[in-house]
Structure formats: C-alpha cells, structure tokens
Amino acid sequence: MREVAIVAFGQSDHVRDSAETSEVEMLMPVLHDVLAQTGLAARDIGFTCSGSSDYLAGRAFSFTMALDGVGAWPPISESHVEMDGAWALYEAWVKLLTGEAETALVYAYGKSSPGDVREVLTRQLDPYYVAPLWPDSVALAALQAQALIDAELTDERELAGIAARSRADAETNPHAQLRGAVPAGEHLVAPLRTGDCPPIGDGAAAVVLAAGDTARRLTDRPAWIRGLDHRIEAHSLGVRDLTDSPSTRLAAERAGAFERPVDTAELHAPFTSQEVVLRRVLKLDAPDCTVRINPSGGALAAHPVMAAGLIRLGEAAARIQSGASGRALAHATSGPCLQQNLVAVLEGE
To answer: Which of 48, 294, 29 is nearest to 10 (CA)?
Structure first.
C-alpha cells in the first residue's frame, strides 16, 4: 500500500470566546503555519479537505466562507465533511492512497462560544425518540459515567485523577485553554463535576499529508500513517452498552493498533469517564502500562468542537516528528457517548 504521512501540524491558541475573530481570521494563521513548515504554497497542494459544522455557525454552507482562508482561485480540488476534521483527514488519506494527489491540506475549526453548544449537540440525536426529550451532551455523558460506576469499572476519585493529570500535562501545551489545578466544584450533572467535562471554546487546526518520497522531501521525520479506520455504534442509545465501545475496538484492530505496542496515545475523550472506556477497549488500562496518555492535556484541556479529533492526530504526529514517540495511537470521536470512533496508528521511519 502507498505510504502516506503527516508532515506538518498546526493549531490556534484555544480560547473561551473569539467574538472579535471570524472563522477565516482564526484559521488563516494556522494554514500559513503548516504551509510554511513544509515550504509549500497553496498552489502546490493537490487536495484540500475540511471538517466543520453548520450547526455551530448557525448558517448553511458556512464552510465555503472558510475557503477564503485557503484561496479558492485558481480553482482547487476541494471537499468538506460535516464532521470532525479527523474524518476529513481520512478522506484525504484515501485520496492520496489512490494516487490522485501527492499532497493534501486538511483543516478543521469550530466556534462554540456564540451559542449553547450543549443544546446544539442535541440535533445529532435520534430525531424520533431521543431528541424530543432534549437531553444535552453533558447529561448523556453523565449517564455513561454512572453506568461505569454502577458496573464498578470506575469511581469519582479515579475520574478526578484523570482530570488532574490532564490539566497538569496541559501546563506544557501553549495552545491549551485550561491548565493547572482542577476546581473541586459541585456536580455539574451527577456524577460529573466541572473538571470532568470539556471546556467550551473556539479553535482551529490543520495538517499537511504527503505520500512516499514527497513526504521525505518535505520533512526530516514524517509521521507515517500505518493504519486508519473508523466505525460507528448503533444510533439508539437504548441498544448500546455504554460501558463498552465495540466500534473503537474494531477500528483499532483494523488499524493494526494491537499488532505491536504503542508508546503514546492521544485519546479524544471529552469527558473523564470516556477515557475510562477507551483505555479498557484499547488495552491501555493494565497496571504496568507505560503508554503516555494525552501528553498534550487532551480534550479536557481544549475542546474546539469539530477540530479536537484532528488535534489528537496532529499531537500524536508531532511527537513522532520530534522523536518523543516511535509508535503512537490517535483516536477521534463524534456523537453522544462515543458513538462514532476513528483510530489511527502512526510511526516514524
């Protein structure tokens, strides 16, 4: 199979509110950054793919405005997914595997600050049985957390420890929105406290993909994508075991994650309880496990909706490129309670 690698990664500083900055203004510095890392100009990119949500922007086809930051003239080969940017990366990866392009620019962005993101995310629920009840994303995550506690797979003390570790790791991440001590606080939705939940914020991210010798020419240490797969759970929450994630397990198997040990795992776990589920299905919960989980601080430190999954792949690739990791796993999710899951395995040369 043709080799494809991530050769550059960039992201914005994630903030609680970017009211004075448009999506294009937020995105352009990130795009300029990743192109500068490779020495490529926009005209050199063979394929461009983006991920975002019109629901967040509050207007149809909002992603077309973001193309102003890319430059759509002269005409470019471009696509868009109404998903997290990790799925845009998957589309670009397939494009390069087919040989239709040598390079690809993938970007994603999200501004959650203008509206009530917990309410907006109810629009992705089953429209007949669940959405009319208006359960928000935090309430559904709390149901999952309580199911884990009832099954004696975790407790509130472990969840608090995950939150504290994430904030501590974010101290070395200049782009993180939250760092330092986690406020104890009251339950936001029992059993979840504020620290167990992702911050609401705005941000953008981008990566450049390249194939074969082109990747080797653009960077000294490409982060090769050795496997990439995504799967989905049943839409109905009532037919799922919320303490398990078969789709993540299957995606990891198909991506080759269990063939050899990894040393880094960037898990897209917006809630502490979801990290518990992911560690179990990805075999990262053994007492003697030495895998570094979310050294960037993860989604608990910065969670721009529609870009947080792409950031997990970018952070894993950045550790490969810096030499801090030899083989890394990256995970992205979308939908309530880990409904859709993507797993990638990245390696150095």
So the answer is: 29
3-state SS track over the chain: CCCEEEEEEEECCCECCCCCCCHHHHHHHHHHHHHHHHCCCHHHCCEEEEECCHHHHCCCCCHHHHHHHHCCCCCCCEEEECCCHHHHHHHHHHHHHCCCCCEEEEEEEEECCCCCHHHHHHHHCCCCCCHHHCCCHHHHHHHHHHHHHHCCCCCHHHHHHHHHHHHHHHHHCCCCCCCCCCCCCCEEECCEEHHHCCCCCEEEEEEEEEEHHHHHHHCCCCEEEEEEEEEECCCCHHHCCCCCCHHHHHHHHHHCCCCCCCCEEECCCCCHHHHHHHHHHCCCCCCCCCCEECCCCHHHCCCCCCCHHHHHHHHHHHHHHHCCCCEEEEEEEECCCCCEEEEEEEECC
* Long-range residue pairs from 64-71, CB within 8 A, at least 24 positions apart, any chain: 65/22, 65/23, 65/24, 66/23, 66/24, 66/27, 66/107, 66/109, 68/24, 69/23, 69/24, 69/27, 69/28, 69/31, 70/31, 70/42, 70/105, 70/107, 71/42
> Can you tell me the distance from the alpha carbon of 209 to that of 19, in angstroms, rounded to the nearest whole number?
31
Sequence-distant (6+) residues with CB within 8 A of 56 are: 110, 111, 112, 114, 115, 117, 120, 305, 306
Q: Per-residue pLDDT for 185 more than 80?
A: no
Angle between helical axes of 23-38 and 63-70 (0-180°, round to 10): 40
Residue identified by tokens 């990566």 is 207
pLDDT tens per residue, range 90-109: 999 999 999 999 999 999 99
| Contact call for residues 218 and 39 (beta carbons, < 8 A) | yes
Of 83-87, 89-93, 179-183, 258-262, least confident by mean pLDDT is 179-183
pTM, full prediction? 0.97
**pLDDT tens-digit readout, 297-317:** 999 999 999 999 999 999 999
